[in-house]
């Protein structure tokens, strides 16, 4: 048995001097792995004489158990040592101030779009959308703007290349969100409806208050008994909530759009003093949107019976609303992608507009 004692001593020595879990695993494999030293000895038990086996088998089993136990003990020790080592180096001073982190900002157009959508949702409107490349029919004809109509010139339209042999007029980049009125009403169950359409529109124009791409919000309400007073009430409610001025006064000024009759442009009361604009007081008026009762010809173009249905529509510039509400002087700055500008005029992403919080 001297041999077994020696083997045991060897293992106990190497276990006690092992310094890592890897070392321990190597020792285990060397002794107890498939081809390990102790494993081979145990395999030989089968071929031993009965008398020899009786003595050796229990000793070998005992040796095996002892090695396993020692390895486990040492494992615990090493793990604990490792943890203590890490605790001593990996400390953290939780009282230190955090590094300044740069948080992105929400663009004023996104912010205002959300504000506007929130207000109209509360009034029972839902969102509709349409394509930015539009056919001549949807952008003009169906809206009662036939080819020779002077309004076509006012729009400074961008035309899309077309096949001259096709016989049909070229598509356009939509000049307003009004074509979505048509797309919505011509759908099955398109009326009655209450929809708003936020979206990009395009006109060839560029100065401090015009950019070739800008954002509009269209509104459309169709039912059997809607009148101009519903239009008036809706826009008043909207403007008061949006500009956060309780008694904001609106002026409906007679106007003309081919797709509404009668038509009105809407101004809000304001004052300009020392270059500062104040809404809701003063003697000036600021135009903010176009509106009117949907023209019967537009309803007919959508196969809606104009003897049965009627309603109102309005359209406003989202960018313009943003400029007015947040005092942003130049429309072009919206689209220049200057991060410093966004940092100044942008909004906290965690601050979601709601009418309960005054939208901010
Ligand atoms: N589409 C018109 C424009 O872009 C605005 C408008 C919409 C006017 C709906 C009346 C009704 O100028």
The helix-and-strand class reads: alpha+beta
Order of helices and strands: HHHHHEEHHEHEEHEEEEHEHH
**What is the CATH third-level topology name of the largest domain?**
BirA Bifunctional Protein, domain 2
Strand content: 15-25%
Return Rg in Å.
Answer: 40 Å
The kinds of small molecule bound in this structure are: phenylalanine
Query: Largest beta sheet, briefly?
Result: 8 strands, mixed
Name of the CATH architecture of the largest domain: 2-Layer Sandwich
Count of domains? 2
- What count of helical segments does DSSP give? 12
Instruction: State the end-to-end distance.
Output: 87 Å
Categorize the overall geometry.
elongated
**Helicity range:** 25-40%
Give the SSE layout:
Blueprint (H helix, E strand, L loop, with lengths): L1 H16 L3 H12 L4 H7 L6 H40 L18 H15 L3 E2 L5 E2 L1 H4 L11 H4 L17 E2 L5 H7 L7 E10 L10 E11 L4 H16 L6 E8 L2 E14 L2 E4 L4 E11 L1 H6 L8 E8 H9 L12 H7 L15
Parallel strand pairs: 1-4
Antiparallel strand pairs: 2-3, 4-5, 5-10, 6-7, 7-8, 7-9, 9-10
Helix pairs in contact: 1-4, 2-4, 5-11
Bound molecules: phenylalanine (PHE).
């Amino acid at each position: 048995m001297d041999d077994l004692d020696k083997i045991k001593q060897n293992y106990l020595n190497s276990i006690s001097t092992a310094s890592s879990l890897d070392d321990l695993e190597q020792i285990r494999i060397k002794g107890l792995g498939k081809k390990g030293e102790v494993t081979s000895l145990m395999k030989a038990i089968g071929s031993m004489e009965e008398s020899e086996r009786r003595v050796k088998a229990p000793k070998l089993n005992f040796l095996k158990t002892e090695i396993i136990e020692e390895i486990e003990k040492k494992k615990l020790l090493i793990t604990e040592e490792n943890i203590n080592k890490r605790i001593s180096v990996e400390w953290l001073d939780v009282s230190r101030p955090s590094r300044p982190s740069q948080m992105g900002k929400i663009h004023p157009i996104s912010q205002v779009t959300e504000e506007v959508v929130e207000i109209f949702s509360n009034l029972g409107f839902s969102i509709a959308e349409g394509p930015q490349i539009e056919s001549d029919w949807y952008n003009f004809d169906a809206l009662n703007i036939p080819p020779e109509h002077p309004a076509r010139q006012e729009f400074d339209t961008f035309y899309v290349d077309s096949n001259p042999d096709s016989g049909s007029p070229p598509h356009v980049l939509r000049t307003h969100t009004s074509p979505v009125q048509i797309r919505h009403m011509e759908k099955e169950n398109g009326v009655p409806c209450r929809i708003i359409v936020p979206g990009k529109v395009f006109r060839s124009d560029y100065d401090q208050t015009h950019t070739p791409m800008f954002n509009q919000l269209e509104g459309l309400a169709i039912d059997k008994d809607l009148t101009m007073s519903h239009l008036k009430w809706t826009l008043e409610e909207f403007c008061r909530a949006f500009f956060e001025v309780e008694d904001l006064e609106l002026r409906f000024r007679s106007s003309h759009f081919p797709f509404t009759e009668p038509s009105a442009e809407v101004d809000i009361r304001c004052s300009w003093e020392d270059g500062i604009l104040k809404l809701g007081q003063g003697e000036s008026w600021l135009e903010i949107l176009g509106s009117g009762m949907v023209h019967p010809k537009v309803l007919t173009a959508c196969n809606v019976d104009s003897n049965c249905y009627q309603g109102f529509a309005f359209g406003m510039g989202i960018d313009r609303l943003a400029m007015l509400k947040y005092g942003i002087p130049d429309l072009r700055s919206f689209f220049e992608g200057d991060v410093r500008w966004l940092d100044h005029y942008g909004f906290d992403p965690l601050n979601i507009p709601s009418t309960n919080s005054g939208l901010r």
